[in-house]
From TrEMBL:
Signal peptide segment: none
Composition-biased stretches (Low complexity): 1-19
Gene3D superfamilies the record matches: Ribonuclease H-like superfamily/Ribonuclease H
Region annotation (Disordered) ranges: 1-22, 70-91
Pfam families per UniProt: HTH_21 (PF13276), rve (PF00665), rve_2 (PF13333)
Biological role: Involved in the transposition of the insertion sequence.
Residue span(s) of domain Integrase catalytic: 98-266
Protein name: Transposase
Length: 266
């Protein structure tokens, strides 16, 4: 091949180039970040975490190194809805109108919520949430083995107890009977909360709440089989309080966690 003996041995013993060495360093950090995210982060969030640590690299490079290392994020899956409208319920306005933009100045002024289900070995576990629209933080939640109004009420009570808002709050939901009942309306009025609802059968009118459930099911629920409601409840607590609110990077918040976003705004 017309290559000199000295050139051959020089090439064989040459040290890796600077880019290869940087790739190796990045791959190590990428693996650590991916593991720290419980195997949930894809290239965009891994890239954001690297940038926060001071690493200079492109998202495509991160995607290439993740693929080479056999790493991938979790992708969302669609599920069944639990909305049961009450045809005789009082009509309420839509005070949100699909405006779910983050706003550091609007924390604890607009909340949204919904109910979903989780299959367990003992039957369905139902989860109701209250999410702060401004910061994406889950400020209240409750679980139950039933789909009644009390479940939604317990989540709203938890949010009020946790946050203690100083002014009026808008709470947005779908038209499920749990949220349009007289009991729920009385609870909201007693706590200076204005109720808002989207249109029937239009999931985009409550997109933020729907998005959280899609993330929860993708990152937690679908990962294993839940033998009992109590085990599932404990896992949800760990996910919301130990990961989603405090550590998970949200693209809509500039790749900050909800807690970090609120602290920065304060």
């Amino acid at each position: 091949m017309k290559v000199s003996r000295s050139a051959y041995y020089a090439r064989r013993s040459a040290a890796p180039g600077s880019r290869a060495a940087h790739d190796a360093e990045l791959s190590t950090r990428i693996t650590e970040i991916h593991a720290r995210s419980r195997g949930l982060y894809g290239a965009p969030r891994v890239h954001a975490a690297l940038v926060r640590e001071g690493h200079s690299c492109g998202r495509r490079r991160v995607a290439r190194l993740m693929q080479a290392a056999g790493l991938a994020g979790r992708h969302r899956r669609r599920g069944q809805r639990t909305t049961i409208p009450d045809p005789d319920a009082q009509m309420r306005p839509d005070l949100v109108r699909r405006d779910f933009r983050p706003d550091p100045a609007a924390v604890d002024t607009r909340w949204c919520g919904d109910i979903t289900y989780i299959p367990t070995g003992e039957g369905w576990l139902y989860l109701a949430t209250v999410i702060d629209i401004a910061s994406r933080r889950v400020v209240g939640w409750a679980t139950s083995d039933h789909l009644g109004t009390q479940l939604a009420a317990d989540a709203l009570k938890a949010a009020c107890h946790q946050r203690r808002p100083q002014g009026p709050v808008v709470f947005h939901s779908d038209r499920g009977s749990q949220y349009t009942s007289h009991a729920f309306a009385a609870l909201a009025a007693a706590r200076n909360i204005r109720l808002s609802v989207g249109r029937t059968g239009v999931c985009w009118d409550n997109a933020l709440a729907e998005s959280f459930f899609a993330t929860l099911k993708n990152e937690l629920v679908s990962q294993r089989r839940w033998h009992s409601r109590s085990v599932a409840h404990s896992a949800i607590f760990d996910y919301i309080e130990g990961w989603y609110n405090t550590r998970r990077l949200h693209s809509s918040l500039g790749y900050q966690s909800p807690a970090e976003y609120e602290n920065t705004a304060a």
